[in-house]
Amino acid sequence: MKTASLVFGILAIVGMIVGFFPCLGSLNWINIPFATIGLIISIVAMTQAKEGEPKGNAIAGLVLCGVAMLFGLIRLIAGGGVL
């Protein structure tokens, strides 16, 4: 579960970077829900981790998905995709 959250985070960041290219900003309409799913998976992975078990992958996935959501939303607002 922790590895899946990290994979979702990496893919969300890649989608966010592609969405910053001109004429590809509408990709953020797909990327933001994808990052939201990754954020939920990361939270579940962090809460299910046992005591003393490393949570690094879940935390990294949480941060990456959060950043992808934030910057994707900023890109949509700046590009006029959200009215």
Summarize the structure.
With 83 residues, the chain is mainly α.
Describe the structure.
This protein is mainly alpha-helical and 83 residues long. The chain has one domain (2-79). Helix content is 76%, strand content 0%. It is built from 3 helices and no strands. The chain has helices at residues 2-19, 28-48, 56-79. α1 packs parallel to α3 and α2 runs antiparallel to α3. The chain is elongated and about 45 Å long. It starts with a helix and ends with a helix.
List the helices and strands and how they pair.
Blueprint: H1 2-19, H2 28-48, H3 56-79
Helix pairs in contact: 1-2, 1-3, 2-3
Give a quick set of tags describing it.
single chain, elongated, mainly alpha, 83 residues
Spatial separation of the terminal alpha carbons: 36 Å
Helix content: over 70%
Q: What is the C-alpha radius of gyration, as a whole number of Å?
A: 14 Å
Mean pLDDT level: 91
Any idea what the shape is? elongated
Query: Largest sheet, described in full?
Result: none
User: What are the secondary-structure elements, in order, as H or E?
Assistant: HHH
> Approximately what portion of the residues adopt beta-strand conformation?
under 5%
